[in-house]
Amino acid sequence: MFCKPGKGRQFGGIFNNAILAVGSIGFFPLQTSYLSPPNVPDMQLFFTTDIIGQRAALPADEARHCVQVLRKKPGDRVQFIDGEGGMFTGRILEVGKKSCVIAVEEEERNYQPLPAAVHLAVAPTKNISRIEWLLEKATEIGLTAFHPFFSEHSERKVLKPERLEKIALSAAKQSGRAYVPKIMPAVPFADFLEQAPVCEQRFAAYLGEGVKGSLKLNYRPGADVCLLIGPEGGFSPREAALAASKGYALVSLGPNRLRTETAALAACHTVNLINQDFHTRLDDRSL
Amino acid sequence: MFCKPGKGRQFGGIFNNAILAVGSIGFFPLQTSYLSPPNVPDMQLFFTTDIIGQRAALPADEARHCVQVLRKKPGDRVQFIDGEGGMFTGRILEVGKKSCVIAVEEEERNYQPLPAAVHLAVAPTKNISRIEWLLEKATEIGLTAFHPFFSEHSERKVLKPERLEKIALSAAKQSGRAYVPKIMPAVPFADFLEQAPVCEQRFAAYLGEGVKGSLKLNYRPGADVCLLIGPEGGFSPREAALAASKGYALVSLGPNRLRTETAALAACHTVNLINQDFHTRLDDRSL
């Protein structure tokens, strides 16, 4: 469903030729939209929530990037998202140094929603870059909301949401997603359990005795899910009892030790991989 | 199968109590081995290839870490790997500032092999940290060998293997793996295709028209596999034709754009996740 024939992007031409030459062989379009099926968003997606009727305005930083870095001009076609599932195409009406007004020509609401909500609850690692990395990758793969929590053994006690929000937005634009994962405020673990989203399935990843099976075998395709990944230092007994009382089921992610962020991404990818098929069955999309 | 009851590690005691208190609920032992099933290696695994009969010596940097950082002494129990599937347990015989001699007491060859060889071929990204991250995570999840290649559009033209080898070793020890992924020398793309490992299945990840299906649906459980992930700039027509002549089949990793390193890890995890079940069927291991 992602195709933009005739788009004069960097490698589009040679790749069309290459594919004709080699039959069904092709390669993953990582940073370009060459050979993408219909509806693929532009490589450069913008973001704004300032959309009134058929007129949209980019916020200052997005406008600056559009106008000063990419040198877009009135009449140029642009695509943007609202972060809530809206994918828009329009033409630039007028530009300033930090402003860009767009006439909306096409819009699609609820653009490629995930087949199921994926909530990921993780205690931030001591090394903040590992959490930032996790958020970027989980967003690319498919994430509804990120719920950081502080547990008794957490080494990190502060987490600033602003940078995480930028990372989630950037990764969503990068991967052509119209939904930007929500970054929930970091709260104490007990508070998270109280406020946790209502999901059909809740899992706590675990490697040890008493595991009922793998996440893969226990996750029901299409089910909204909350995935709980323990902190580097482990939960306290009080925290474990609290989680149990909220119905988190014990599952394995495989026989090996995984770091916090690896476990979290593996859990997220497992759910989304299972839902690839569910997705296909739902609306007969090609994978 | 990973359990070490009675091991006096940091959170082992309280976690055993916690689990007794909360029934089947438990959490993922990320940086500790508490509640790990039988055979789980120590949190701190060492590495050496200097093993002669029942006597092993750690290399200088490992010995230094063991003796000076962890303050291990003669008589202390240690576990180590040889990187080729050997998992050893022994007691320290004698130590120096940069030396540590161990009497081997137990050894297991071919410790937890992957159910299938997973070869990952990727063009290094411009930002080297993204490749280093990929290698760390792929090693945790399960990787046989890493094959970097330079293609015509690669922005990075140099790749030093030493640091990558350290990352692979560190991640293997961290995740309790006895096999350390081989880091192959970075070579031109055409040379990679000539030298590529013989695998039962070969895939090139792709998002676009002509995709036969997903990697998930095309991968045959237990099959040795070579996964080819395109560079940031795309392959040239000549490169695409070359790969086609080597039988790389076109598969999708899902409908969204993924960065090079995300695509590579997703492909790797997809194969290993499918093989989790294959693994179970092979030897009835619990997951």
Automatic annotation (TrEMBL), chains A, B:
Localization: Cytoplasm
EC numbers: 2.1.1.193
User: Which InterPro entries does the entry mention?
Assistant: Alpha/beta_knot_MTases, PUA-like_sf, RsmE, RsmE_MTase_dom, RsmE_PUA-like, tRNA_m1G_MTases_N
Q: One GO CC annotation, please?
A: cytoplasm
Report the record's Gene Ontology biological process terms. Answer: rRNA base methylation
According to the record, the segments passing through the membrane are 12-30
Query: What region holds the Ribosomal RNA small subunit methyltransferase E PUA-like domain?
Result: 58-104
Which residue intervals define the domain Ribosomal RNA small subunit methyltransferase E methyltransferase in the entry? 113-271
Q: Which residues form the signal peptide?
A: none
The UniProt keywords, alphabetically, are: Cytoplasm, Membrane, Methyltransferase, rRNA processing, S-adenosyl-L-methionine, Transferase, Transmembrane, Transmembrane helix
* UniProt xrefs under PANTHER family: 16S RRNA (URACIL(1498)-N(3))-METHYLTRANSFERASE, RIBOSOMAL RNA SMALL SUBUNIT METHYLTRANSFERASE E
The entry's family comment says:
Belongs to the RNA methyltransferase RsmE family.
Name the UniProt record assigns to this protein:
Ribosomal RNA small subunit methyltransferase E
Q: Which organism is it from?
A: Phaeodactylibacter luteus
Q: What is the lineage of its organism?
A: Bacteria, Pseudomonadati, Bacteroidota, Saprospiria, Saprospirales
